[in-house]
Amino acid sequence: MIIILGIHLPGNIKAFMKTKPELRLIKIVEDRKENVNYFGITPTRALFIYRDIRWPEGSIGASQKETFTNYNVLGMMPLRNGMIGVLDVSAVYIKPKRGRGLSKNNVLIEFTGVQSAGIPGRALIYLEKTKVAEFDVVPWKERTYRTEVNTI
Asked: How far is the C-alpha of 50 from the C-alpha of 120, rounded, in Å?
C-alpha cells in the first residue's frame, strides 16, 4: 500500500500546489422570481444544463438543506447540529436580496458563528473575482463578521 501511495502521492500534491481553484463560470439563460436557468461556460469543464434551479435568496443556513446542491453550493455541507461545515475552498451562488438602509449599489455580506474546526486560519471572501473581506478564524471560538460592499 505504501509503495502504491508513494507513486501517486507526489504527483497529486504537485498538482494541488500548482492548480488555482476556480469557480464555474455560468451564463444566465432565464431569471424568474423563484427559478433560474443557466448553463456552464467554463471551457475546461463539460457543459451541464440545469432547469428550474433554486438558489438561496439573501442568505443560506443549515436549515435550508434543499439548497446544498452541486450547482449552487461548493465545498459546504449542512451538519446535524444546525451549523454548516465548510472545506478550505468553498463557494455559494446566491440571489442578492435588497437590504434596508443600504444604498442602491451596496450589499451587506455577513457571516455568523464562524470558527475553525482544527487550526487557526484566515477566511478570505471573494465576490465575483474581487476580494471583499478577510478575517481571522480560530478553533472553538465563534466569530461574526459583516461588511458592506459596493457592487459597481
From this structure: 38
AA letter at 104: K
**Three-state SS annotation for 65-131:** HHHCCCCCEEEEEECCCCCEEEEEEEEECCECCCCCCCCCCEEEEEEEEECECCCCEEEEEEECCEE
Q: Over the stretch 55-82, which tens digit does the pLDDT of each residue have?
A: 788 888 888 888 888 778 888 888 888 8
The pTM assigned to this predicted structure is 0.59
Residue 129 grid coordinates = 473575482
Question: If we measure between CA atoms, which residue out of 125, 108, 103 comes closest to residue 59?
Answer: 108
* Chain center to CA of 51: 21
Q: Give the residue extent of every domain in the chain.
A: 21-150
Owner of C-alpha cell 458592506:
148
Which position has the grid cell 451549523?
83
